[in-house]
Structure formats: structure tokens, C-alpha cells
Amino acid sequence: MSASAIFILDLKGKVLISRNYMGNMDMNEIDHFMPIMMRMEEDADTSPLVTSGSSHFLWIKHSNLYLVAMTKKNANAALVYSFLYKIVQVFKEYFKELEEESIRDNFVIVYELMDEVMDFGFPQTTDSKILQEYITQQGHKLDVGAPRPPATVTNAVSWRSEGIKYRKNEVFMDVIESVNLLVCGTGGWWHLNWGERARGNDWSGIGGMVSATGSVLRSEIMGSIKLKVVLSGMPELRLGLNDKVLFEITGREKSKTVELEDVQFHQCVRLSRFENDRTISFIPPDGESELMSYRLNTTVKPLIWIESVIEKFSHSRVEIKVKAKSQFKSRSTANNVAIMVPVPSDADSPKFKTSTGSCKYLPEKSVVQWNIKSFPGGKEYMMRAHFGLPSVESDELEGKRPITVNFEIPYFTVSGIQVRYLKIIEKSGYQALPWVRYITQSGDYQLRTN
């Protein structure tokens, strides 16, 4: 069982639009929601689920709106929240932005969508591409005579329409991995007197570096495989990966494999086939979609290693020295690298020197942003920043905020995942071109200094 009713409220708790799906609740019960929320805010004790008597409110906030599901039953809370986030996505794809104004401007379409996405408390079609076939921005107009539901609703393949035709048939697949990393203790790689010896405009005195010992506190790889499908008809695709479980089944343990965790598939994937022989077989949605996502909870060697030290001089100025080293193979290159180095919040008069790239001071964030457009593997670069400080010493604990790094490495996956094959089978027998691209990028990538 899911929700008995769905409400969309403004920030003051006024109901903008609602839908009673089961008729088993007093819709005026929603009047209790906002007073409860206000009391929770005063107590600094917010909860995603609140209760008034026998009524339960499961809610999310988006922009200047509250989306609230109301039920008296023992509902599947995970299903309800998944549904609320899904209808936010549907509304955004219809109206670009979901906010109070877009709801007020599109009451008719919002009501039609709410009628279609849930029936008697159970989620139904929530794919915006399918909904847009019969609920348009101009409103839903029925033909004369008995209305016929679109084929995608009654078809076994509800995510793809029949009769799709293209002059050139292609599939573009992106294997994208985001690296989440937290490293602690990356400072102290210069001798303490480095700043006294490196006053000139060159990098003399850097011979005083010592190796840093940083410990990886958290590392994981979040991966996804995204598709852009430009194929005619109703093709079947078969995807082969260097999946560890599959290779063990087929006796190829010595081959390079990856062990995927928390794998989630698009509804088009035949799960029974995957569970039986690890074959990823599917009829793809037309256009862009995410085929699957996965996670690898493994120790990741930091792809870009950062070491830094901060020195204060007579409470009137501060120098920050940073070394960045790429720890991947030289045949790969990280693009658009941005290293965000925290500085004292009261710093001023910035001056920079870098061995490559450029720096800019972002006072609103109290950071120096060091931009390196192209960072080949196996390279090492330096940056030095000089700031003035007020004469009054601050009690603020400086240098404790982490250094964050953003980057993207094309043609490379940190996990080593590989697409072994991508077969395209269609009854008309046309030839289709598959294109595969690999990308590794930074996720939550932080290095904390001592």
C-alpha cells in the first residue's frame, strides 16, 4: 500500500493542489501538517515522517514547495519517498523548474499527471517520456469516440514506443565513475624554514620537501552506465562486462575483473536472465537513459594527491604552499582540474605564483582556486599564495577545512571496468554502430591537512 492522498503545499502550508486517491481520509487533516513542522523547527528536530492522531505525513521539500503524502495505513515508506522524488522529476521535465509559480500556471496538466502517476494509492506510469505521449503542454485532448490508451501503456515494453525509425542507427554508451575520497593528514611536506629560503621568484628551496603520510579514511567508486539510443524498431541489446562473478562461472578467474556491488538496473533489463547467467539483456528506451548504476567499496589510490602547508608571519601575512601530483599513468590526462585551497577568512591582498595553471581568490568562499586545464599522469606542480592579514589575531582555527579537488579523466576508469561487447539484434537485420566512452570524475574528493 502506498499513499491515500498527495498534497502540494507552499511554504506557509497552503494547499496548492491535492489528489485523494483512496477516499478513506479526511482531506482537512493536512491542516495539522504545518503546525507540527513549525514546532519541529523550534525544537531543531526535523523528521521526514510526522504524525497527527492516526494520520501519517511523509514529506519532502523541493524549492519553495512541500510535497506531502498522507496515509492511515502501514505504508511502504521507501516506496512513498521514491514516488515523491519521481513525480518531482516528472514535473521538472514538463515545466523545467518546479516551484509554486509553475504549479499555479499549470493546474490542468498537474491534475492530469497526478491522475496518471497513481491509481488507488499505487504508483503507475512515472516515465515522463511515456506520459508526454498523451499529456501534452497544450492539454489532453481526446479524439471523438472511445479513447484509446497509447501503445506504450498496454505494451509489454512500456518504456519504448513501436514504429521508431532512424536513417542512421547508433548507440552511444558512457561508462562514468565518480571517485569519493577522504584523506587525512596531507600536510607538512616542507621543512619549517622553507618559507625563509624560497623568497625569490623561482622555486629554490623546494629540495626541503619530505614525504607526507596521509591515511585514506573513506574511498568508494560510484559508477553508472548511460545510454543514448538512436535505433529503429524494437532492438534487443546484450552487454558484456568484465564482471568477476561471470568470469568465475565461466572459469576465467585469472582475467582482470571487477566485483560490482549495489547494482541497480533500469526496468528494461531482464533481471531473471542476469540472475541466471549474468547476461545484461534489454530492449532500450529511445533517447537518453541510465541503464545501470553500481558501487565499489574499495581502497582507491588518490588520483590527484595534494600536500600543503600554511605559515603565518608576525600575524600580518600568511603563505600557503601547495604541491599537486597526478598518480595515474602518463597516457591519461585529467582535464579542468580545480583545486580549492582554504585560506583565512580575513585574508586580503592576494599574490600567487604557480608552476602551471592560474589562481584566483574567491573571498566569498574563503578559498584559492587553482585551475589546471590539462594535468597529465605522473606530473607534479607547485603553487604558492601570499596574503595579508589584519594586525588583530583571530581566534579562528585556520587550515582545518579540507582541500577539495574537481577533475575529469576521459578514456579511463579507476575500477578497471570494461565493456567486452555490445551486441545489437533487430529483426530487420540493419547494421548499427555502438560507441563506448569511459570517464572518471571527482565526486566528494577531499584531503584534510593536519
From TrEMBL:
<keyword id="KW-0333">Golgi apparatus</keyword>
<protein>
    <recommendedName>
        <fullName>MHD domain-containing protein</fullName>
    </recommendedName>
</protein>
<keyword id="KW-0472">Membrane</keyword>
<keyword id="KW-0597">Phosphoprotein</keyword>
<dbReference type="GO" id="GO:0030131">
    <property type="term" value="C:clathrin adaptor complex"/>
</dbReference>
<comment type="similarity">
    <text>Belongs to the adaptor complexes medium subunit family.</text>
</comment>
<dbReference type="GO" id="GO:0016192">
    <property type="term" value="P:vesicle-mediated transport"/>
</dbReference>
<comment type="function">
    <text>Subunit of clathrin-associated adaptor protein complex 1 that plays a role in protein sorting in the trans-Golgi network (TGN) and endosomes. The AP complexes mediate the recruitment of clathrin to membranes and the recognition of sorting signals within the cytosolic tails of transmembrane cargo molecules.</text>
</comment>
<keyword id="KW-0813">Transport</keyword>
<dbReference type="GO" id="GO:0030665">
    <property type="term" value="C:clathrin-coated vesicle membrane"/>
</dbReference>
<dbReference type="InterPro" id="IPR028565">
    <property type="entry name" value="MHD"/>
</dbReference>
<dbReference type="InterPro" id="IPR001392">
    <property type="entry name" value="Clathrin_mu"/>
</dbReference>
<keyword id="KW-0653">Protein transport</keyword>
<dbReference type="Pfam" id="PF01217">
    <property type="entry name" value="Clat_adaptor_s"/>
</dbReference>
<dbReference type="InterPro" id="IPR036168">
    <property type="entry name" value="AP2_Mu_C_sf"/>
</dbReference>
<dbReference type="InterPro" id="IPR011012">
    <property type="entry name" value="Longin-like_dom_sf"/>
</dbReference>
<dbReference type="Pfam" id="PF00928">
    <property type="entry name" value="Adap_comp_sub"/>
</dbReference>
<dbReference type="InterPro" id="IPR022775">
    <property type="entry name" value="AP_mu_sigma_su"/>
</dbReference>
<feature type="domain" description="MHD">
    <location>
        <begin position="195"/>
        <end position="448"/>
    </location>
</feature>
<dbReference type="GO" id="GO:0005802">
    <property type="term" value="C:trans-Golgi network"/>
</dbReference>
<keyword id="KW-0968">Cytoplasmic vesicle</keyword>
<dbReference type="InterPro" id="IPR050431">
    <property type="entry name" value="Adaptor_comp_med_subunit"/>
</dbReference>
<dbReference type="InterPro" id="IPR018240">
    <property type="entry name" value="Clathrin_mu_CS"/>
</dbReference>
<dbReference type="GO" id="GO:0006886">
    <property type="term" value="P:intracellular protein transport"/>
</dbReference>
